[in-house]
Design goal:
9-stranded mixed sheet; 11 helices; 463 residues; single chain; Alkaline Phosphatase, subunit A; 30% helix; alpha/beta; two-stranded antiparallel sheet
């Protein structure tokens, strides 16, 4: 079991050695394992050589259809309208009749990776993508499956993957959190999906926006129309109350975590406004992300902020689309709308990370909580499919232009080289230098970990 490491650095000494300039977002001066005061990492030496320094999770909430995006099934086109030649899984509200999608698949780039016309911009980056086509997970319902992809549990309150990474590594920036969630959902677990659960409170995400919307791009408690003096007095009051509570109760990790979280929030007042200010980006960069275009503005702003946060030293950033991919009916119009909102900003994020020398040590993860059925539901819709679906990786030491695993001939079940959600989590941690079996936290008499008692690193997708 790993416990938080102690540090003898004073805040003044840390400030002197870090020499961080707020005028620059470059983090090259920071060693990959440096941490901010108040958030000492539990791992001071990596378990395995780290390949990446940060993760950007592009959460396509609702479940995009894998058989209409990255999992080409020629037999689905050939047998469109015919009966499914095997039994439906339990709890499926769908007609066992095969339904081909309206988008054409083509082999893209030099790698020949199959990508549909639904995502033309991501298709243009096919040689930068690693497609896992054999995912499977727990949870036929959104609540269960959303919990699995975000926390590794389909029915219990557990720390989010971002909280685990924050606990393990801390932030690379002394005045920013390690974990940020942009546009997270309020449904299907809501704060649980970016929360810290029994980990210290400071490891829960700092939140920007809500339900897939970027909003004003501000952190509510850091100002707005409230004066700096008023904000300072509020922080001082909360700190005094926490300190009094600590003196009265004695050593308490929950109180310590709350104190650390408030101290970090106070320090963020200086660093965050500059980093969160997208107007510091050139007009050309903003246009490339789709900002000021009606369809792409919100998600484009979210992706651009994710790049700025990654560049500044934030370890784990979630960008949520909002729960928009859940097309039980009208698949074509719904998926077209969602793709138009997200496809361009995602492709530009990949290109921008490459230009800035960040792609090789950043892992992008694209995916929803599950996929969709290859059979019809309602009016040309698809039901939930946790039995087989796709997650796409990019950057971060994974194979580029590569497809791993297979579903059956129609895309219903993960069949070959299956990858469970616990395996995906284990692989993400591994790329960060963390052994998922060694990253544990003792709570209620048990040593917990993100992958519970499961999971294996999927070395086959690693470069």
């Amino acid at each position: 079991m790993l416990r938080p490491a102690k540090t003898t650095l004073s805040r003044r000494h840390f400030g002197a050695i870090s020499s961080f300039s707020l005028g620059s977002l470059a983090v090259s001066a920071f060693a990959p394992w440096r941490f901010a005061l108040g958030g000492a990492p539990s791992i001071t030496t990596p378990h395995v050589p780290p390949r990446i320094r940060r993760v950007i999770f592009l959460f396509m909430h609702g479940g995009p259809s894998h058989v209409d995006t990255f999992d080409y099934k020629p037999l689905l086109k050939r047998d469109d309208g015919k009966p499914l030649p095997f039994a439906l899984p339990p709890n499926i509200d769908a007609v066992p009749k095969l339904m081909d999608g309206p988008w054409d698949f083509k082999q893209r780039g030099e790698s020949g990776l199959w990508v549909s016309s639904l995502l033309p911009n991501m298709a243009s980056e096919a040689d930068s993508l690693c497609v896992i086509r054999s995912m499977h997970t727990h949870g036929q319902s959104h609540g269960q499956a959303v919990g699995m992809i975000n926390t590794g549990s389909d029915n219990l309150v557990r720390p989010s993957i971002g909280a685990w990474i924050s606990y393990a590594l801390g932030s690379e920036h002394p005045d920013l959190p390690a974990h940020v969630a942009i546009g997270p959902a309020t449904a299907h677990g809501g704060p649980r999906n970016y929360g810290a659960a029994f980990l210290p409170a400071m490891h829960q995400a700092t939140v920007v926006g809500s339900n897939g919307k970027f909003g004003d791009g501000r952190i509510p408690y850091l100002g707005g129309s409230v004066s700096a003096e008023r904000i300072s007095s509020r922080f001082d009051l909360v700190k005094a109350m926490n300190e009094r509570h600590r003196r009265a109760s004695g050593p308490d990790t929950e109180i310590e975590g709350a104190i650390e979280a408030v101290e970090l929030a106070s320090r963020m007042r200086v660093a965050a406004p500059e980093i969160f200010d997208l107007e510091r980006e050139s007009a050309a960069t903003q246009r490339a992300y789709g900002i000021d275009s009606k369809e792409t503005d919100s998600f484009g702003r979210s992706c651009l902020l994710a790049r700025r946060l990654a560049e500044a030293g934030v370890r784990f950033i979630t960008v949520s689309s909002g729960q928009v991919w859940d097309q039980h009916g009208n698949l074509q119009s719904g998926h077209n709308k969602n793709a138009k909102a997200t496809d361009l900003p995602i492709a530009e994020l990949i290109r921008d990370l490459k230009r800035r020398g960040l792609w090789d040590d950043t892992l992008i993860v694209w995916g929803g909580e599950f996929g969709r059925t290859p059979v019809v539901q309602g009016t040309n819709g698809r039901d939930h499919n946790p039995q087989g679906f796709t997650v796409v990786l990019s950057g971060g030491g994974v194979k580029a232009g590569y497809a791993h695993g297979e579903t059956d001939d129609y895309g219903y079940y993960a069949l070959h080289d299956r990858v469970h959600m616990h395996d995906l989590h284990a692989t993400i941690l591994y790329q960060l230098g963390i052994d998922h079996e060694q990253l544990t936290y003792r709570y209620a008499g048990r040593d917990f970990r993100l992958t519970d008692v499961h999971g294996r690193v999927v070395h086959e997708v690693l470069a």
